[in-house]
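Journal club prep — side note

Before the paper discussion, L.F. wants everyone to see what a predicted structure for a comparable chain looks like in token form. Sequence:
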Amino acid sequence: MEFISPTVVIILGCVALLLFLQWKNLRGPPCIGGWIPWIGAGFEFGKTPLEFIEKARIKYGPIFTVVAVGTRMTFVTEEEGINVFLKSKEVNFELAVQNPVYRTASIPKNIFLKLHEKLYVVVKGKMGTFNLYRFTGQLTEELHEQLENLGPHGTMDLNNLVRHLLYPVTVNVLFKKGLFPTNERKIREFHQHFQAYDEGFEYGSQLPECLLRNWSKSKKWLLALFEKNIPDIKTCKSAKDNSPQTVMQALLDLLEMETNEEKSPNYGLLLLWASLSNAVPVAFWTFAFVLSHPNIHRTIMEGISSVFGTAGKDKIKVSEDDLKKLPLIKWCILETIRLRAPGVITRKVLKPVKILNYTVPSGDLLMLSPFWLHRNPKYFPEPDLFKPERWKKANLEKHAFLDCFMAFGSGKYQCPGRWLALLEIQIFIILILYYYDCSLLDPLPRQSSLHLVGVQQPEGQCRIQFKQRK
């Protein structure tokens, strides 16, 4: 019997080791599919996607892949995966969102990829921290106008109250003064179509428009609204000659330079959704949390009285210095956003990336869930509690959030309107509490677990009773 030489054994062993290591390096994360190949886990995932994500994390570990409706989504939940998501050059934001942008705003992919960075720079510049002072007085005046129409007292659903106040304020500030309708019938029509578009946005970003008849109808109505008003927005000048362009006017200038004016209504729709879809529910939840915590409500009222005098007595103007004296309000907003953060933010994997012992293949959507990241006690102790005081540790003077706070995204393409949204909600809370005595008539509602895109919406009604202070 002939023996195999030691050299051959060593060579074969090395080859086997190399093959094993190569197999290990190419091994993908645990994959959750289904018995129907293209549908995969789509049915189960679509029922309650937020709950599905957390159950999968507990069962499969810090990284796992979900196959649903022909899409591979790889979720990362711990430091190494988060670092790849935030810092790797092999993952891309624009390619991840180009399809949803096309479906929801009918902006062709080639135009979106060509213009996105330029438009982002314009919006970021207009709504950045250095220009916020330009909006403070305008937001205050617009909110005064809406509050004057609210009446001396009443009872209504808090979500409807917030929409009633913030829809016209945001539209008139970002697009042009007076764009939001004042006729009751037209106001109802705007509310109906924007709410239908917003509520169906996630489905519209994934499914053919022909399957979503009512959503498509509202989308076309909003596009027609902008098509009709774009010429006036473009040429409108404020009564104050030295007032700056609105954000939409600045976008129109860039679109004209880039010879893509025909897509102006589409970008108007995208700006409208981005400015209302998250700010309104954040304002709702913040106000509901404040009214649900008597000690916080009382402390905020004491602060407002110390800055502006006896509540309800005078017509007040809110300045940047006033806001700095009322930090608790900003802490409450940020704590609300932490608790009601978007379900996911996403990037597209351009080349295979290594995370832990797994390789995520190119073409996957890499997903990070701010909603669940903000509930990790490692990063946020007592994560399910509303504790605005935790934000004392954030360096908000230098516009820095707490570590692992991802509600606005992170890196190059953080939400460019985050500072303006925070400012608008601060002023909203100050003015409504200054002029009205408010109380909730219903318990704080549950948050819906149906959607992944944007801030979590309330599930069920939450009525508020308000009475003008004298």
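L.F.'s comment for the group: The radius of gyration is 25 Å. Keep this in mind when we get to the figures.
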